[in-house]
From TrEMBL:
SUPFAM superfamilies: ACT-like (SSF55021)
Protein name: Iron-only hydrogenase system regulator
InterPro entries associated with the record: Acetolactate_synth/TF_NikR_C, ACT-like_dom_sf
Species the sequence originates in: bioreactor metagenome
């Protein structure tokens, strides 16, 4: 059976954590099928807090390595959903 994974990330302080997070996302870019990010408070104002939703491809073993590195970044909270297809 095939599995797909959706990951939600809450970045508590984008200014502080964005660099580390972006390096990890770039390292594992081959796993990221879709990425959606948002951080606007209003039309003219950006929040220091942000959210990223990722749709992953690849294998569960690869996802685990990616998720481990994400979990080691301070100020980033991760939630996961898995679907068997």
């Amino acid at each position: 059976m095939k599995e797909t994974r959706i990951i939600g990330l809450l970045i508590r302080d984008r200014i502080k954590e964005a660099g580390k997070l972006q390096l990890t996302l770039s390292k594992y870019a081959y796993l990221i099928k879709s990425r959606l990010g948002f951080h606007e408070l209003s039309e003219n104002t950006c929040s220091r807090m942000g959210f990223i939703i990722l749709h992953l491809s690849g294998k569960a073993e690869e996802w685990q390595a990616f998720e481990t590195e994400i979990s080691e970044i301070g100020g980033v909270e991760m939630q996961k959903m898995s679907f068997e297809l």
